[in-house]
Structure formats: structure tokens, C-alpha cells
Amino acid sequence: MTAQATPGPGTPVEEPDAHTWTGRARRWLLKKLPPDKLLPEDQPSYVASWAYVFGMGAIASLLWIVISGIVLGLNGPQWYHVSSLGNFVNSTHLWSVELFFIFMVVHLWLKFWMAAWRGGRVLTWITGVISFVVSIVAAFTGYLLQTNFDSQWIAFEAKDALNAVGVGAWFNVANVGQLFTWHITLLPLAVGAVVILHVLLVRVHGVVPPLEAAESDAQLLHNRPEPAEPPEPTAPPETAESGGAVR
Amino acid sequence: MTRKTNSISWRKTDDAASRPWTGSVREYDLIKELIIGVVVVGLLVLGVSALFGSPDEPSVSLKAWATAAPADFVGTAAKELAGTSDSAGYGPPYNSTPGASQTIGPVDLQSLSGVRLPVDTANDFVIVPLATLPSPPADLARWMAATDQQRSGWAAAYSDALAAAPDNDPAKVADGDYGPVPALTGALLDMARQGNLDGVLQNGGNFYNTDYTRSLLFLGDGSYFPGLAASQHLSGDQWGVMNETGDTPGQSWLWLFSLLYQVEPFKSAPNADALVVVTMFVLTALLTLLPFIPGLRSLPRWIPLHRLVWKDYYRNR
Amino acid sequence: MTGWLVASVGTVGDGTYFGWDGFTIQSGNLIVIVVMIILFVLALVLPFPGGKRRK
């Protein structure tokens, strides 16, 4: 990234006279996440491994889950029992969920072994785990909405766990109306929000460098004097970043 | 940790992980990766769906139960009348059976919601449905006129007699003082066989309904429905919640939840559900807060799989 | 047991289960777990096609 990639015309990053709440919010956002950090055209040289593709795989699967889910939802819960097209769409909904979890779990394993929470990235790890947990609940409500033998039995089995901790009345596994609220409104919104936050945090903090990266490494020494990140005129990177959210 | 080059800490320090990267970079196209991801995953989804499809085992109705296992149906109906079924003694949120809720020490989470989905098994499952028939059985009036003590005496005696009868067959029950109970359970069996009970139990006389709590509880009190599930490997002692019918993968991500139910001390604990949920809550919190836990967070350094991830980087140091 | 909403779906088969005393696993779940482990190992060992280096 070279110098001319910094602020586009009309959007000066630095607005010393921002005094409204809105202006300050914009300045804070642009400082945390300038456009070329949000949509980067390069990555550090160490971002070169198949280990980096699974997060994107999970996001792609999530998009397919949403698309197939919208089709299923608009046709109503009984459609897939009686239509072969419906049955196929139901299959794509199921398999995109299976792929979503496969990618997400491999992503989680890899990020653990890369200790990806280092250097102020702990909130990225936490949002990742939360998105995994919320996804599990969302998938569970999907299994309860199959309106077939499997959902009948899962509802019968699972009611005990929910009742035992006192939430069974509002999360009533045998009330299809409640489950629709959970499965097609609340939980997808929650998964979407946490995943978006997770991705934004990855962009804000950048991809974690190798565990044994040292100042003496050739790839760090190379162009030491000239930062590859776009320069921020007032605040040098060190101090600008050190007030990060996790401190 | 004097050399900051190898810190496993989540903290922002002055090591390479905490500073914006200033070293060499490579070209990267975020949007292109997203598009490629969506296309590749889309093709995978369509391919796997076309190849394997998804299972859709039809649901079980009360009619199917009454037809396939009439003795089990009658036995369960007698228990509902006697108040000895699982649902009758469940506790919150269905009813307020004393001592029925699962507690952990003094903490009684189950009672928090109170009885929000009231279920009175004798009335809701048997008496009220029978009263909706065009010509209700004559014995209904006798039941209505009896005292609570008489009712539970009749129903319990009949329930015991059914359990003792050959094949639990209502036709082979020994003589006894069962009051109107055999007539009522027999009438309910006929009603269910004709398919009337499904509707009555589900919509309670209303046009709309999305709540299947009562039908499901009644169905689950018998042994026909759990038996079907067991034959499909869906029971709790068979990793049930994880499994889908047939060969399709299910919720394999629930493996730990499912495992806990199958090992001690959870397996034989009367409050297994409460214990398992709380344990899973604690374990999930541990995973979430893993970067703060000494030892666990150092595993990646002790078992350096990261050298494989960043093999190119380490090779060109 | 024929609801009016049951179309061409037949009964799903019994499923294939693998197991040793007390421990069983359904074939679909087993495949998903094996696929995850394979992907994990491949991600570690497969060489990544080199991108264009830039300064």
C-alpha cells in the first residue's frame, strides 16, 4: 500500500475541529478502521497458508444458510415435506449448516494453535467463541423446526435441559410459534451481529504475526524505516494503537 | 518473559504481535477471496445436497400410537388419570409437584419460571378431550362426580392391573374396582384411533395453534414413541441429540453435551439436566476466556503446530 | 400413519452405526469429524501457492 491510497477525496481522516458527537464518532471510526484497512489490498507476508481460508469458508457457508433459509421460510414450514424442490432446498439448508460448522471448528482449532489472541486481539477470540455458541443454539432451533419425527424427538429430549435451568417456558421446544421467533429472527440476527463484529475486529487489529516473529527477522527488517501501513499524520502507530479496547 | 518476541499473552506489549506490521507484504484481494469462497461453497452445497439429500422421517401422531400400540396407549392414559405419569409429576413449568424440580444445592433454577405452561394430565389429556365428543361416554359423569381420592384409587388400581396383565392387554386385566377408568381409557383409545384426539389435544378447541406441548408430553409418557427413537439410535444413552435419522450427519457439535449425560456423576444423578447444563456453561466460559488462563493458553507454544502454519515465514527469516 | 402432508418420503433407513462396547457413532457424524481432522491436517501441511510479494 503506497501513500496515495490514504484518504480518498472529500473524506479527510483528520478532522481536528470535530466537536459534535457524530463528528467524533466518525473520527474515531476512521481512525480505528480507515477504508484501506477495512478493505485491504495486501497482507503481511506471513499470511500465506491454507490455514487462513476457513474463516472465509464459514462466512460463505453462512451466506448460503441465509439464502436457503429465506427460501424455506417464505414457503412456510410444511413446504419441504410435500415438494421435491422444497426438499432439495431443505437439503441445501442442512448441508450449508454442516459445512458452516466444519469450517468454523477447523478455524477455531487453527486459531488456537496459532495463539491468535496475542497482542491485544483477545476480543476477536471472544467474539469468535460467542459466534460458535450462538450458532449452536440457532442450529438447534432449526432441528426443532423440521416438523418431522426427528424434531419431535429432539423436542421431547431437550425440554428437560431447558426446563432444568428455568428457561423452558420462553424457549418452549414444543411451541413451533416461539421457535420461529428464535430461529428466523432473534438467533440469526445475533449470529450475524457477532460475526460482523468478529470480522471488523480482525480488520482493526490485523492478522496476528507468527508466534516466534522477532525484530531481527528479515521480513521485518526489510523495510523497517518506512511503515507499510498508511501513515497517520498526527498519531504515530504505537501510541495510536496502545489505547485499544482491550487494555 | 524478558524477550517479548515470544509472548503468548493476550496483552498489548511491545512485541511484534502488538504493533502494526511494518515488514514485507504480499498482494491480497479480500473481495476476490469472498467471491471465490461463496462460489466454491455454493457448488459444494449443491453437490452434496444433490448427492445425499436430507432425511424427513414423518412425525408420529397419537393416532399412529393408538393404532400401533393400543396396550401402551391405554396404560399411559391410565397413568395420566392416576397422576403417576412422568408429565404428571414433572414440576415446573408444567405443574407444581413438590420436590420435582432439579436443584443444585440450594439453587432451584427450574422453579424460577413458575408454572407457566400448566398441564393437568388427567383433565387435559383424557377428561376434557372425551367431553368434546358428540356423545361423551356415560362414565364421564361418574368420574366427574367422584372425589379426588376415589379417582386416584380407581386409576392407580387399573394402572397396576394393566402392568400385571399378560402383554399389558386391557382385555386380559384381572377383575377389580376400577370405577369408570377402563371405560374412559377405552373411549380415549377409540377417539385416538379415529384421529380425533390429535386435533383436540393440539388446538384445545381453537382454530389456531402452534403449541404442541400437551401432545408431545402425552406421547412421551408412553413407551411407543421413545421406543421408536431408541430404534433410530436417538436416545440420550446413544448420543441421541447428536444423531439425525438415517445416515445424515446431525448436530455433532453437541458431542460434549451428549457425552456428559452418559458418564458419571451425571449419568445417575437425579438432577442430571441441571448439572449438565451448568457444566457446559462453565466449560464454554473457559473456552471463551482461554487467553486469560495460564497453562491452557501456553499449549500452542509447548506443542508448536504454528511452525507448520507459518513454515514459509520461519524458513525465510 | 399417513398425514395428508406426507409426500413421497418413505421411512428413512436405520442408519449405519460403528461402535465398540457402549460407544457408538453414526456414520454421518463420523464422516463430518473425519473431514474436519483431514482439513485441519491438510491446512497445516499443504504448501500454499505463493502470492506476489510486494515491498
Defining key terms:
heterotrimer, A: 247 residues, mainly alpha, Cytochrome Bc1 Complex, Chain C, 1% strand, disordered C terminus, C: 55 residues, alpha+beta, two-stranded antiparallel sheet, 3 strands, disordered N terminus
List the helices and strands and how they pair.
The complex is a heterotrimer of chains A (247), B (317) and C (55).
Chain A: H1 21-32, H2 35-38, E1 42-44, H3 54-75, H4 79-82, H5 84-113, H6 122-144, H7 149-164, H8 176-205, H9 218-221, H10 237-242
Helix pairs in contact in A: 3-5, 5-6, 6-8
Chain B: E1 25-27, H1 30-52, H2 62-68, H3 70-82, H4 121-131, H5 139-145, H6 148-164, H7 181-193, H8 196-203, H9 213-221, H10 224-231, H11 255-261, H12 272-288, H13 299-302, H14 306-309, H15 311-315
Chain C: E1 17-20, E2 23-26, H1 27-45, E3 53-54
Antiparallel strand pairs in C: 1-2
Describe the structure in your own words.
- The complex is a heterotrimer of chains A (247), B (317) and C (55).
- Chain A is mainly α.
- Among the domains of chain A are: 48-114; 119-208, Cytochrome Bc1 Complex, Chain C (Up-down Bundle), CATH 1.20.810.10.
- Chain A has helices spanning 21-32, 35-38, 54-75, 79-82, 84-113, 122-144, 149-164, 176-205, 218-221, 237-242, and one strand at residues 42-44.
- In chain A, helix 3 runs antiparallel to helix 5 (84-113) and helix 6 (122-144) packs antiparallel against helix 8.
- Chain A is elongated.
- By secondary structure, chain B is mainly alpha-helical.
- Chain B has a domain at 62-231.
- Chain B is 48% helix and 1% strand.
- Chain B has 15 helices and one strand; from the N terminus they run E-H-H-H-H-H-H-H-H-H-H-H-H-H-H-H.
- In chain B, helix 2 crosses helix 3, helix 4 packs across helix 7 (181-193) and helix 11 packs antiparallel against helix 12.
- Chain C has 55 residues and is α+β, with helices and mostly antiparallel strands.
- In chain C, 35% of the residues lie in helices and 18% in strands.
- Chain C contains one helix and three strands.
- Chain C has one helix at 27-45, and strands at 17-20, 23-26, 53-54.
- In chain C, a hairpin with a 2-residue loop joins strand 1 and strand 2.
- Chain C is elongated and about 45 Å long.
- Chains in contact: A-B, A-C, B-C.
- The interface between A and B is large, with 114 and 119 residues.
